[in-house]
Write a structure and sequence with these properties.
It is built from 2 helices and 18 strands. The protein is mostly beta strands. The radius of gyration is 19 Å and the shape is globular. It starts with a helix and ends with a strand.
């Protein structure tokens, strides 16, 4: 009975934790999408520092982002993410003469993108071993399908720098007296030539749920370790939850060496 109780405690914790992907402003690992979903009516906001290797090729410099996100229903998540643009004498997207010379080197604009995630299948619906499945997109209304060339839509210039479409599957496995292992598979697609994301992605995370009330044990239980291949690069990182899961710090080492980091704040409206 005690063994069964321990397993159920770990499974309960595993089923009620989700991971914030500050690089895209959605739920996920570091850069790759997953099928994890937040609690119903969870409002997230945050942002951070993005080293240039973490961003699409349009950014040849380090930048920052910020976003808002809400899980409207248990099966639907939407987000709005902004990534800052710096004025440059020769802009990598628009060429020379686009920015006013007095603004060179300053952050003067931002790229905006909307994201949507739809849960198609809940983990364990049919059998305990069945994974959760999510269909999602970033910059879904923009023009990834036109190789990233600029188009006009509703009088707004749409660039689709963050465009991607994906199908993701996630399975959580409780590890007795240790924690929860997440296994994530996805197929990611876009048609951009400057930042192609076309192919499978695979990732894993491990969140500790050690038993005991010792201060060190409690501190370790707030840690979530992550590793991924996002269809382009291999990345390592970690998430640490402060004050339950209301404040989360996330760090990433893109290509296992380039540092980015951010903060994610959560408010559970229900």
């Amino acid at each position: 009975m005690r063994k069964l109780k321990c397993i159920l405690i770990i499974w309960f914790v595993a089923a009620n934790t989700a991971y914030a992907q500050f690089t895209y402003g959605t739920t996920g690992l570091l850069n790759m999408p997953t099928a994890d979903m937040q609690r119903d009516k969870t409002f997230m906001f945050g942002g951070g520092f993005l080293e240039k290797h973490t961003t699409p090729a349009r950014w040849t410099y380090d930048t920052f982002n910020y976003y808002i996100n809400i899980t409207i229903f248990p099966w639907l998540e939407v987000a709005y993410d902004c990534t800052l643009h710096k004025a440059m004498e020769v802009d990598p997207a628009y060429g020379s003469g686009f920015w006013v010379p007095s603004t060179y080197g300053k952050f003067v604009n931002q790229d905006r993108n909307f994201a949507v995630r739809l849960r198609l299948w809940k983990e364990g619906w049919w059998k305990l071993w069945t994974p959760q499945i999510v269909l999602g997109a970033n910059d879904a209304l923009n023009n990834s399908w036109t190789d990233g060339s600029k188009i006009e839509m509703s009088s707004a210039r749409m660039n689709g720098f963050y465009s991607r479409y994906y199908l993701a599957a996630t399975k959580h496995l409780p590890i007795k007296n240790m924690g929860e292992l997440g296994i994530h598979l996805a197929y990611v697609y876009n048609k951009r030539k400057d930042y192609p994301l076309n192919g499978p992605a695979i990732g894993t995370n491990f969140r500790f749920t050690l038993l005991g009330n010792q201060p060190l044990t409690k501190a370790i239980n707030h840690l979530n370790l992550m590793a991924e291949y996002d269809s382009r690069t291999i990345n390592l990182g970690a998430e640490y939850a402060f004050w339950k899961d209301y404040i989360n710090a996330v760090i990433e080492f893109n290509r296992c060496r380039y540092f980015s980091g951010g903060l994610v704040f959560k408010v559970h409206l229900k």
